[in-house]
What does this fold into?
Amino acid sequence: MVYKEKKIYRHLYGPVPSRRLGYSLGIDIVPYKICSLDCIYCQLGRTTKLTLERESFYPLEEIVTEIRQILTEDVPIDYLTFSGSGEPTLYHELGRLMRKIKAITPLPLAVLTNSTLLYREDIRHDLLMADLVVPSLDAVTQEMFKAVNRPHPSLDIETIIEGLIKFCQEYKGQLWLEVLLVKGINDSLDHLQILRDTIRRLQLDKVQLNTVIRPPTETFAHPLGNEELEKIRNYLGSKAEVVVDFPRRDRKTAFSSEKLTKEILEIVSRRPVTIEDIHQALGYHRLEISKALKELKQANKIREINHQGRIYFELK
Ligand code: SF4
It folds into this structure.
């Protein structure tokens, strides 16, 4: 068997099996937790810089070079996805970057955005190039917006919804709205009624319901159960669906245990993960993963946390 060397990238992670996108290669173009929101459920922790300013955080060519390199590796990729450590539309070169990537690969491009900057024409214009845009909308009143998403003080939910409506009219690709529901906060009937009315004003392909799955920033952010999510799905209409875990496909490559440790550290440095997450992302046997995690814990590099009865691992 040939063990293939896998590079550690600065801007790329995965491909990880995503519940929505199959094997999604994450492209991280914003430094850790630079965001226009500070969501109570964020799996990455508190926002370190709450901002609406677009910046060229990294040289565009540095990101393109990494993408060129990974495309030469034997890894399954269904989507190249802009997401990661913060809000991707804050990267000033996003439009140019997408054009460059389109010139080197026919793989579809997805952008996961928190929707807050869609009121801006330049940002809507950049996103027109994506094959799939997944904007999120967890709140439809300013009060709820503040409670769930803790936005930058200048953000106004009505302006964001108007931006989203405009984008739906201009954009020709796939549009899947994501709504993350937090138990006892944005799942009340009153709020869901306004949400349903708002969704009717948007031209969407899907409405994807999600809940607090990974350890949230705030311990009071609790998930909804399956039955509650299903009820809300019915209420929101035929385009709504509850997003479910994606089954893994076998990977073609294999790695040595030293590589396994490096790969685990790479994944764990992005977000808290379970053994199953790592198994699905890397294809290793769960026992091998468990052994490597134990060694990393003993070496004081990671810690174990219990969230809703599930064990996650995060960087120390
Ligand atoms: S969940 Fe997304 S939008 Fe919300 S704070 Fe975290 S990175 Fe920002």
